[in-house]
């Protein structure tokens, strides 16, 4: 039996890992990571654009609200001007609507029923008419 020569620096019980002749670097994990980073970049860009679009819409709505509030206050001033009693009185006088100097009661004949009933029926109307100056 012949024995094999042991190379220097190596013991016979150690094994040497053989290298394959076609050693390629691992590219797939690097590509997956790169694609994930690119997708995250585009997702963040899209979310920022969406937020900006929402901010522009909000700004437009706030401007529209300010315009409508200004219109509301202008209309309130117009209502106050139109409800001015002196204005209403002058317009009524122009139309010939004035308070009478004296009151003339009118009696309506032909009402069936007792006199007490007639007084009761017209009490609300008299109360309304007596409130006026």
| Total count of helical runs of at least 4 residues | 4
- Spell out the helices and strands N to C: HHHH
Distance between the termini: 146 Å
Q: In percent, how helical is the residue content?
A: 55-70%
Low-confidence stretches: none
Shape: rod-shaped
What do these coordinates show?
- 60% of the residues lie in helices and 0% in strands.
- It has four helices and no strands.
- The chain is rod-shaped.
- It is mostly helical.
Q: Can you tag this structure with a few keywords?
A:
133 residues, mainly alpha, 0% strand, rod-shaped
Summarize this entry quickly.
The chain has four helices and no strands.
Question: How do the helices and strands line up, and which of them pair or pack?
Answer:
Layout lengths: L27 H55 L2 H10 L20 H7 L1 H8 L3
